[in-house]
User: Which sequence fits this backbone?
């Protein structure tokens, strides 16, 4: 289990302050909250992109090299689709298997585009390639930071089916940041809500729905 | 008119030697300055350390520093009574390379630093997402910024072959030893040998044109490869 305890980080006027947040292993977690609530900062702290001012992040035995993340605007290497896809394997001195590469390319609808210059792909294709690239080395903890925000419905379905298949075969821990309730309800087993830099609530998608409705009613009853 | 009517492309043994020495000086100086300039440029972009702003300012100042002054400084360092006089490097190829290092390295580091400010944060975030090691991240940065680096090196090479003041002071314009195209042109003009001077001038012009073409090609290639 990933344990985040008494985590603090100050960035100019923004203060992230999380008393305690726990991510159970091999589950799909949703991270929700308004813009500026600290979701991306939290991910940056867990993945090592930023250092916390205070507090601890216990990865529960997951090695840092088994953690990865995808972003809304993925970076494409100035190289072919194939070389982009195998990059994480290459830096781990692993031989890419033809079967795996074929499988990922097919799942992401990129079959036949192996030799295409990756930065020339459409934004949706780049998202899919970045997703495949993040998963090809079989990480244990994956953060998806609004990767699905600008995708068409079919691409979203592809993503969802990949996540569902992985969870059936060899489950890993996912943290999905999304503003779209549909993603959360379809995929996540646990939802964590952030507000103004703090962790507000954790529960199942259903419980989160009730919690949000209650809050909404309270706000409007005054 | 008289000068032009007497001009014919005269590639004598001496001229060819001069061209070869200039090219060799350009390549050696650019290669050595890249060894210092590229890591320094990346370091200045990345690390926040005490005195970074001052170093950046000095680097920018050196980018436009008059080569004659650099030549004079290197001369004072290498002269027989200077701190490195015992090495007997003055009026040698090595002395010219040293002078050019002071002129070119700030150009390489400055250009790499500016390019890295735009490109490196994104590349570094990607490298972290892939759990690349420090050395893997460094080589990835070099690979991904290769067009910016080629551009910086081409500019430096151009500066190197067209430089006259510093190499004249520390090289001494010695035939077959330290005579470059620019110092040769200066000498030919003094001697009134305009034909030879024009020949070298034309070769230098062609070289500059080739470098400019290379840089334009790199720019175009980079624009085509941008993410849209």
Assistant:
């Amino acid at each position: 289990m990933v344990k985040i305890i008494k985590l603090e980080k100050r960035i100019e006027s923004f203060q992230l302050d999380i008393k305690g947040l726990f991510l159970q292993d091999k589950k799909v977690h949703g991270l929700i909250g308004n813009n500026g609530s600290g979701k991306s900062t939290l991910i940056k702290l867990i993945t090592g992109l930023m250092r916390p001012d205070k507090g601890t992040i216990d990865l529960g035995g997951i090695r840092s090299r088994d953690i990865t993340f995808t972003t809304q605007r993925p970076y494409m290497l100035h190289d072919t689709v194939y070389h982009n896809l195998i990059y994480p394997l290459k830096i781990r001195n692993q031989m890419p298997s033809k079967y795996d590469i074929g499988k990922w390319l097919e799942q992401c609808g990129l079959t036949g585009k192996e030799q295409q210059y990756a930065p020339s792909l459409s934004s949706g294709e780049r998202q899919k390639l970045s997703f495949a690239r993040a998963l090809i080395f079989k990480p244990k903890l994956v953060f998806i930071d609004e990767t699905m925000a600008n995708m068409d419905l079919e691409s979203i379905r592809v993503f969802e089916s990949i996540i569902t298949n992985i969870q059936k075969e060899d489950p890993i821990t996912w943290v999905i940041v999304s503003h779209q309730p549909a993603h959360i309800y379809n995929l996540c087993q646990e939802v964590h809500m952030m507000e103004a830099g703090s962790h507000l609530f954790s529960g199942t998608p259903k419980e989160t729905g009730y919690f949000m409705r209650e809050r909404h009613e309270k706000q409007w009853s005054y | 008119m008289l000068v032009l009517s007497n001009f014919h492309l005269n590639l004598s043994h001496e001229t060819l030697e001069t061209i070869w020495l200039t090219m060799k000086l350009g390549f050696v100086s650019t290669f050595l300055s890249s060894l210092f300039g590229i890591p320094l440029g990346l370091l200045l972009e990345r690390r926040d350390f005490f005195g970074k702003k001052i170093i950046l300012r000095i680097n920018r100042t050196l980018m436009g520093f008059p080569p004659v002054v650099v030549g004079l400084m290197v001369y004072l360092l290498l002269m027989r009574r200077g701190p490195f006089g015992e090495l007997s490097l003055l009026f040698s190829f090595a002395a010219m390379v040293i002078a050019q290092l002071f002129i070119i390295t700030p150009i390489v580091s400055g250009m790499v630093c500016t390019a890295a400010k735009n490109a490196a944060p994104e590349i570094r975030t990607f490298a972290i997402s892939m759990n690349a090691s420090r050395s893997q991240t460094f080589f990835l940065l070099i690979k991904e910024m290769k067009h910016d680096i080629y551009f910086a090196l081409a500019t430096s090479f151009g500066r190197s072959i067209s430089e006259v003041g510093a190499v004249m002071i520390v090289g001494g314009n010695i035939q077959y030893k330290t005579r470059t195209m620019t110092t040769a042109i200066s000498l030919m003009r003094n001697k009134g040998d305009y034909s030879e001077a024009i020949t070298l001038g034309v070769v230098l012009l062609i070289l500059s044109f080739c470098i400019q073409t290379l840089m334009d090609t790199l720019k175009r290639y980079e624009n085509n490869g941008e993410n849209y």
In short: Strands of chain A lie at 2-11, 14-23, 28-33, 54-58, 67-70, 141-145, 173-177, 190-195, 198-203. The helical segments of chain A are 39-47, 81-90, 98-107, 123-135, 153-169, 181-187, 205-221.
